[in-house]
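User: For my dataset I need records formatted as: sequence, then structure tokens, nothing else. Please produce one.
Assistant:
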Amino acid sequence: MIKSEEIKCAAAEMAGELVQIRNHLHAHPELSFKEEKTAAYLSKILNSWGISHETNIGGYGIVGLIKGKNPQKKIIALRADMDALPIREENLVPYKSLNDGVMHACGHDVHMTTLLGTLKFLNENRDNFQGTVKFIFQPAEEMLPGGALKMIEEGVLENPEPELIIAQHVFPELEVGKIGFKSGVYMASSDEINLVVEGRGGHAAIPDRYDYTLMAASNIMVDLFDAVESEKPADFPSVLAFGEFRADGAYNVIPSEVRINGTFRTFDEDWRKRVHHLIKEISSSRAKKYNCTCRINIKIGYPVLVNNEDVTTISRKAAEEFLGSGNVKDLSLRTTVEDFARFAQKIPACFYRLGIANTEKGIVSNLHTPTFNIDESSLGISVGLMIWIALRNLEV
């Protein structure tokens, strides 16, 4: 049986290599559905370690197996996402993004590095554990419809079918060395709201020859917000927010079209359906009031992420064993979203958080910001912990 101290020593020995891998990935980010070079780099490393795998699954996804003794005893899956964000990096570091306007500002470079380090250890210790670890490098977490759905459609959870799946995400709200868990409902669903109000445009001075598209659009936005705020259930949060209101008119020009884009997030599927109905009903009626029409497109996004109680309990206990109970924290509900929820819909799952902040060093920037960075010492912690969590879940 592999002991935690062996894993900690192995992770420490890997530290330099892990930093090199992460820095390369950070310097060469690619956007969702465009991770061709990222996938090639991952595949090259896996090949150099003698780890067989398949490529181009659900886009540029990679899937493979690490088989221990008695490989059919239990099969689990580990997942890391691959894509970056359309953000121009402002960090002045040697590994700063070389792709202008693209940045690993959500830590997916850390996720890939962690899974690689985990696989290297497991592959070198195949004779020391029982069961099989299926690994998944998933493209396009940041953009709908998301890479998880495409990978699932192409059979990533089949042949063989894992009993559970585990993933982590960096978390700048926790200092390095800390880990966070939440059992049950954890992250919200998300939908993209796209509204286009249409009517006759015209000269502002001649009101009988145009339709007041801006008034219709303004009423829609305000009344939708008020309706959701007044009707939303009290036992869980939800968010309806509009981030874009585009009307290309002028001082005396009433536009024929006004666009409104926003997001809706919640933790309850019934309420989610109710809000979809409110959007359609209110948008149509307010547009009609001003002799306009409204084209409504609700792009259904990721589902609610639910952490399986049993898998999360096992994984949390493993983290407490590996890092000490004082370093394992409770997480709160988050109205952010995560494509991993697609996997969690299909099989029991655990999605936990890795502390990467270091206040003393000034490493405190939030996710999705141009100055986001990590304390590199988190890489060894991350790899060691994922190995230990995987082994503990295989043993049960």
